[in-house]
């Protein structure tokens, strides 16, 4: 299994993929080790994961370099991801204890009612490549803290990154029979899902999520799906500092080369501020530097896979054919690597593919709207429901709109923001289940009801 550098097309490394036999062996090792891990005091599990966080901090540059090599993330953003993962780990370490405690609900005479919390067992996690450290942190860390074992399959594109993560967990004294890694692509994923897992977590596309869900259903395995998106932003008429809003939206659209599930994909702008917003955003988009992701100062790197370049080009061609106006980018890349220049389109509409499909790259469309109701209707004209943002100078104006949006996360005057104390979830084809926040801790626990009668 060869890992390809998306910036050069060169082979970085080669790995032997797991087969059904090795995956089964890893699963049964975890199944044996999990009860012992759960039986340890929470403080001992916390200690190991504090050590893991410290090790991430000690190896930031090394870890970031591998991440940049494997999926093309600009080096400064790769370092930021590792630091961000540590912040999330600290949240889970500091918050987990209160959500594992038994809950005493009622006492009546000699009877006490209590809820106890127990680990699920062995959790399988199939992840994707765009934020491997943050995504692993969302699942692997709370799963381990709550006493579960984890069979972790990173995307094959970031196998080396996954191996580094696993090595540091083991160095931090998380036992080998508590967390293991599966190497490989589709065949390895299917073999993993054939194991009698106690829970399954998946991050990826809607189409792949459907397949995972169907496979998990054969074993009645509880399944959490973090899936596709096509996230909208609306700029209302009352915005005074249009230039500042344009800069915020620019970051939301093009950070990580546009390969963020919560990134800005569709922009709706009230007609009263449309012209200045488009002018500012076009100017700033043209200023973004694209190039070698290992070089400081380059904001746009290559896309992780060549398939994404093909999809974006198809969406761009479709939009231009149907009347979209090219404001920035759009030039074909003729050199090595999976590059696609940051591209901005105006005069788009919902007959165009990029306004209906997930783009997952630096391609964004802007549509002018006449009023708030039109904007809300268009924002919700999507099979996805991950995030949505509204920029306005008045909360009273936007609160009713935000409460009507069918999304897991709503933003006011910000976008593409994920914080560990808030739940992360999707609606419609963006998935099911929750990670992060206290809900993302409790998600890895099973409740047990206790009816306790004290004999006299």
Structural notes for this entry:
By secondary structure, this protein is α/β, with parallel strands linked by helices. 42% of the residues lie in helices and 20% in strands. The protein has 14 helices and 20 strands. The protein has helices at residues 20-39, 42-58, 60-71, 75-100, 132-145, 159-171, 186-193, 206-217, 242-254, 271-287, 306-321, 372-379, 395-404, 439-442, and strands at residues 2-4, 11-14, 103-108, 111-119, 122-126, 149-153, 179-181, 199-203, 223-226, 232-235, 266-270, 325-328, 343-346, 363-369, 384-385, 387-391, 409-412, 427-428, 431-432, 445-453. A seven-stranded mixed sheet has the order 12-13-14-11-10-16-17, sandwiched between helices. A six-stranded mixed sheet has the order 7-6-5-8-9-19, sandwiched between helices. Strands 3-4-20 form a three-stranded antiparallel sheet, with no helix packed on it. The model has no long low-confidence stretch (mean pLDDT 97).
Please, how many helices? 14
CATH topology assignment of the largest domain: Aldehyde Dehydrogenase, Chain A, domain 1
DSSP helix fraction = 40-55%
As residue ranges, the low-confidence spans are none
Query: Which architecture of the largest domain per CATH?
Result: 3-Layer(aba) Sandwich
């Amino acid at each position: 299994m060869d890992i390809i550098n998306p910036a050069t097309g060169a082979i970085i490394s080669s790995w032997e993929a797991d087969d059904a036999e090795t995956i089964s062996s890893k699963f049964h090792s975890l199944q044996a080790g999990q009860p012992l891990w759960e039986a340890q005091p929470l403080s001992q599990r916390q200690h190991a994961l504090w050590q893991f966080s410290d090790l991430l901090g000690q190896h930031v540059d090394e870890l970031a370099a591998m991440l940049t090599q494997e999926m093309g993330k600009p080096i400064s953003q790769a370092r930021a991801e590792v630091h961000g993962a540590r912040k999330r780990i600290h949240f889970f370490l500091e918050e987990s204890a209160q959500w594992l405690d038994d809950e005493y609900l009622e006492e009546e005479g000699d009877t006490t009612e209590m809820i106890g919390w127990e680990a699920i067992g062995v959790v399988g996690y199939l992840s994707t490549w765009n934020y491997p450290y943050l995504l692993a942190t969302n699942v692997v860390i709370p799963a381990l803290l709550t006493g579960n074992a984890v069979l972790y399959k990173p995307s094959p594109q970031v196998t080396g990154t996954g191996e580094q993560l696993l090595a540091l967990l083991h160095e931090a004294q998380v036992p080998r029979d508590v967390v293991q890694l599966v190497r490989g692509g589709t065949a390895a994923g299917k073999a993993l899902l054939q194991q009698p897992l106690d829970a399954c977590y998946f991050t990826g596309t809607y189409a792949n999520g459907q397949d995972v869900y169907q496979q998990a259903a054969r074993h009645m395995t509880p399944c959490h799906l973090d899936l596709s998106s096509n996230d909208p932003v609306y700029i209302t008429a009352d915005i005074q500092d249009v230039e500042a809003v344009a800069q915020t939206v620019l970051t939301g659209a093009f950070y990580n080369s546009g390969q963020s599930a919560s990134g800005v994909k569709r922009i709706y702008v009230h007609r009263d501020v449309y012209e200045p917003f488009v002018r500012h955003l076009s100017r700033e988009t043209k200023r973004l530097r694209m190039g070698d992701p290992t070089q400081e100062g380059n904001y746009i790197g290559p896309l992780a896979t060549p398939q994404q370049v093909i999809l974006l080009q198809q969406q761009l061609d479709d939009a231009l054919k149907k009347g979209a106006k090219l404001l920035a980018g759009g030039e074909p890349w003729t050199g090595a690597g999976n590059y696609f220049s940051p591209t901005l389109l105006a005069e788009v509409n919902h007959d165009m593919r990029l306004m209906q499909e997930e783009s997952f790259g630096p391609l964004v469309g802007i549509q002018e709207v006449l009023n708030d109701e039109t904007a809300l209707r268009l924002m919700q004209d999507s099979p996805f429901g991950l995030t949505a943002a509204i920029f306005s100078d008045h909360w009273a104006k936007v609160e009713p709109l935000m409460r009507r949006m069918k999304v897991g996360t709503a933003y006011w005057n910000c976008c593409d923001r994920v914080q560990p104390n808030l739940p992360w979830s999707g609606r419609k084809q963006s998935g099911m289940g929750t990670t992060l926040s206290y809900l993302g801790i409790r998600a890895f626990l099973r409740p047990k009801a206790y009816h306790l009668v004290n004999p006299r």
